[in-house]
Amino acid sequence: MKNNYTNLLVNADGAILTIALNREKKRNAINTETIEELEHVFIHMPNTIKSVIIYGKGNHFCAGLDLSDLKETNSTEGVFHSRKWHRALDQIQNSPAPVIALLNGACVGGGLELASACHIRVAERTTFYALPEGQRGIFVGGGGSVRIPRLIGVARMTDMMLTGRVYKADEGYLVGFSQYVEKDGLGMEKALELANKISGNAPMTNYALTNVLPRIVEGGQDVGLMLESMTSAISQDAPEAKQRLKDFLEGRAKKVGE
Ligand code: 1HE
Question: Which of these is catalytic: 113, 171, 193, 258?
Fold first, then answer.
């Protein structure tokens, strides 16, 4: 897999891939090249990678869209630019290897859209969440209108954009932005612990969670229940699942919480 990106640091360590946004001087603001590089990483990810951690170099996860990209664009270019973000973040959401976002400092605008496309968010205490698009006279364009309400609800997103409201890490945890809050400097340790657990799961379980569950949720009850039955049966049929069930029944598997 390619690892010489201009705006990313990409490093595979066994089954875990870490991707750092590497524009610290610009607070990891995402320009066109960065979003194209993110898409490239996920398209070309080998199936030996079982989990991914995305983080930002320095004191901020990501300051959102690089606003210098917006200079002199017309509406046609604007649509294509937004669709480029959609393609890249869809690759992340649909990645067979679950993706953990490790957050610190600013997680704003397009940075929050990127974090929302990931499957788990670990926030260090410095993290703050905002959607400054409202104040910049624009709208979200990186899938935020679809993914952010799934995390925090429509009313909270509307308030954030109308009023510029900022959520701190602890509040963000309570409203649903992150599943974990960690002390500063300890986020990577937690993310790696989670990535190792995820990497040990059966591949079909992880695939069902990243690729089937979101479709069940969007598909309505009747379609959802049918998809659930199909996924459940396919996952049970895998030799690895059969072995895991046997291990439990014969007393070799860990109990819940161990
Ligand atoms: C940037 C960007 C950026 C920083 N585009 N250059 N996002 C925003 O509206 C957030 C704008 N950024 C900020 O509010 C602040 O930079 C932070 C709170 C994130 C960090 O503050 P701080 O004091 O640590 O850094 P700084 O001094 O403001 O920024 C350092 C440099 O990064 C500075 O450039 P320099 O040449 O003067 O050193 C900043 O101009 C630059 N910088 N953020 C371009 N975003 C798919 S649609 C998504 C739409 C959006 O994401 S809109 C929201 C954009």
Answer: 113
- Whole-number Å distance between alpha carbons of 70 and 82: 11
Catalytic-labelled residue, pool 133, 193, 228, 250: 133
Confidence of residue 258 (pLDDT cuts 50, 70, 90): confident
Compute CA 66 distance to the chain's CA centroid, rounded to the nearest angstrom: 19
Report the nearest atom of ligand 1 relative to the CA of 63. Answer: 19
Residue type for 123, please?
A
Of the candidates 74, 125, 135, 97, the one whose C-alpha atom is nearest the C-alpha of residue 19 is 97
Q: Is the pLDDT of residue 34 over 90?
A: yes
User: Which structural domain range is residue 193 located in?
Assistant: 8-199
Let me know whether 215 and 180 are in one domain. no
Q: Are 97 and 50 in contact (CB under 8 A)?
A: yes
* Predicted confidence (pLDDT) per residue in 194-227, tens digit: 999 999 999 999 999 999 999 999 999 999 999 9
| pLDDT the model gives residue 144 | 98
With 0.85 as the threshold, say if the pTM is over it: yes
* Pocket mutation for ligand 1, best pick of 38, 39, 67, 126 (most atoms within 8 Å of C-beta): 67
Q: Are residues 134 and 12 in the same domain?
A: yes
Reply yes or no on whether 113 is catalytic: yes
- The verdict on 91 and 154 lying in the same domain is yes
Q: How many A from CA of 129 to the centre of ligand 1?
A: 14
- The verdict on 116 and 211 lying in the same domain is no
